[in-house]
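ok, trying the design again with the full structure, not the truncated one.
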């Protein structure tokens, strides 16, 4: 999965500046239009004010806005335009950091930002060593490589990818590559029945730990496909969640034999797996962060909507309907809000209903 998505020359994300949208393979909330970024800006502006109000006397006036998995910068551009129009103090203080593995996408970021590019502080593949402000990651963790395991009658087995004599990829079961896989399941209190196949996102958990350490003070907003561990490691997902996207067609975990769709055309299609939010949250809290909310994107955006004015007309906006649609982006995407050194403020994004379906 790591090679297929991120190989510097042949990886799916490395070979194009943008993979989503009508001409791509899948849609994200950003592809729906600028309204998503405008609503996220409401939450960031509130976080900016909280940081200002709780700042120590020697604090600087700057504010780091870090987007991890930024692609070509479209979400940050939408956020900054809204800030320039509605929250000029925020806009003036912002130091933008766009974090993106794809060199092609990084090369496109200044053009995407246009007249907002003066806010861009860094455009790199790795997070700043330290930052104070807000980090946003929209659909990043589900694209991090995972281990796939399957429970057999005798023991837990890991699914490996090998090439046959003709170079065709196939899967092979073997002993787990690391005891961290079993430890992960035990921490999540997950009991797998024989035949259950699940993905374990060690990379996502380690990313969360590392990010939490780099954040000196501020907030993290994670928006992604996923579930709490009791739901993810249950009979409802006992075939796993590995899914491919190509040409707006998805193929999920129903095929778990040697012809699994994620083995086909490596580097030419997206591969995702749902996020274990329980483990990500626990990793953040172990590094000193406080969980401020976990909810469906639907309720997060409904909480923010009144702040942009004319909510009744906005709620009829086709963009907004797409963003909150049950069974679509609204309920399948979850929002995890975390804070560090800011207390436990009641955030506007949690004002409508804190519910994860």
């Amino acid at each position: 999965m790591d090679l297929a998505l991120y190989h510097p020359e042949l990886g799916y994300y490395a070979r194009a500046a943008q993979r989503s949208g009508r001409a791509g393979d899948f849609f994200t909330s950003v592809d729906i239009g600028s309204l998503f970024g405008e609503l996220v800006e409401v939450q960031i502006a509130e976080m900016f004010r909280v940081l200002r109000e709780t700042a120590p006397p020697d604090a600087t006036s700057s504010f780091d806005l870090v987007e991890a998995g930024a692609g070509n910068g479209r979400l940050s551009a939408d956020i900054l335009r809204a800030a320039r129009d509605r929250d000029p103090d925020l806009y003036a203080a912002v130091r933008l950091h766009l974090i993106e593995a794809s060199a092609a996408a990084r090369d496109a970021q200044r053009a995407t930002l246009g007249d907002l590019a003066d806010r861009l502080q860094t455009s790199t593949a790795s997070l700043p060593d330290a930052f104070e402000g807000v980090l946003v990651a929209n659909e990043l963790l589900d694209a991090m490589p995972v281990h796939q395991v399957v429970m057999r009658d005798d023991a837990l087995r890991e699914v490996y990818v090998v090439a046959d004599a003709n170079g065709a990829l196939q899967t092979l079961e073997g002993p787990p590559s690391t005891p961290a896989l079993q430890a992960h399941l035990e921490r999540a209190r997950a009991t797998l029945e024989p035949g259950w196949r699940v993905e374990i996102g060690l990379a996502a958990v380690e990313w969360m730990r590392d990010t939490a350490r780099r954040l000196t003070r501020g907030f993290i907003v994670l928006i992604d496909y996923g579930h709490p561990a009791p739901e993810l490691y249950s009979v409802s997902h006992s075939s796993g969640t590995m899914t491919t996207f190509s040409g707006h067609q998805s193929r999920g975990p129903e095929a778990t034999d040697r012809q699994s769709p994620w083995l086909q055309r490596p580097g030419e299609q997206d591969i995702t797996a749902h996020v274990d939010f329980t483990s990500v949250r626990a990793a953040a809290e172990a590094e000193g962060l406080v969980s401020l909310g976990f909810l469906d994107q639907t309720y997060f955006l409904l909480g923010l909507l009144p702040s942009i004015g004319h909510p009744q007309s906005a709620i009829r906006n086709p963009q907004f309907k797409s963003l909150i649609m049950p069974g679509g982006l609204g309920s399948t995407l979850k929002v995890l809000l975390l804070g560090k050194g800011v207390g436990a403020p009641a955030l506007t994004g949690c004002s409508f209903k804190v519910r994860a379906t």
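Keeping the full-length input from now on. The chain has one domain: 2-143+200-238+273-350.
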